[in-house]
């Protein structure tokens, strides 16, 4: 039989482990709980400071969702955001994957310098590029068009994603690619059929990173888009649900909850691949 002291310490360690995990889960899930309960709270329940903010003191209501869907163009904003995100992801993949592969194949001093130079462009603050981009968008006649965002956002995503994909392609053993070419595949065919599938974690990371940036960016979307029918969620929601010093908290939380839940599910569904995408090369 095991000594009672060892058994006690083991159960205490398990309890502490469970307590830490439970506290972490509660900390991460609390914003979603807050958004959910605020979405269905009555306005009088929200503004009464004597009420418990974590519970329903009055019966739940659907008025906040009615305001969100009936008095704003929320559905149109969500569709606009999806269009921009899909366009940005497509352009980012089209440019960053070949660029990353080319940098991975470019060995020597020039390869390192090009890789560092591309990554440094990602570190340039977007506010510095604001005026040049405005001139370009005006010259192209893309004001108040979603295409302005589709063309501008890749300037933020492509440099970082190219650098990220370079690390992934370098992690793929060259012997595998050379063996595929010896079997009769061309370099391009070996790249598509061998290298790309082995780098799926990096490609998924690029997709999530690009889509998230396109969904949450605010400054450029606010400046380049002027009509409400072309707004994205990040601009339309605060513009129409914050009127002076009046905040429609229930509708605001409902809008945030509807958008954030799919993103959270996406992140958690591919968490292992996403972490692998940002930590590639950390362990050899």
Automatic annotation (TrEMBL):
Keywords: Cell membrane, Membrane, Transmembrane, Transmembrane helix, Transport
UniProt protein name: Inner membrane ABC transporter permease protein YcjP
One Pfam family from the record: BPD_transp_1
Ranges where the ABC transmembrane type-1 domain occurs: 78-270
Transmembrane segments: 12-36, 77-102, 114-134, 146-169, 190-214, 246-267
InterPro entries: BP-dep_ABC_trans_perm, MetI-like, MetI-like_sf
Record carries keyword Transmembrane: yes
Lineage: Bacteria, Pseudomonadati, Pseudomonadota, Betaproteobacteria, Burkholderiales
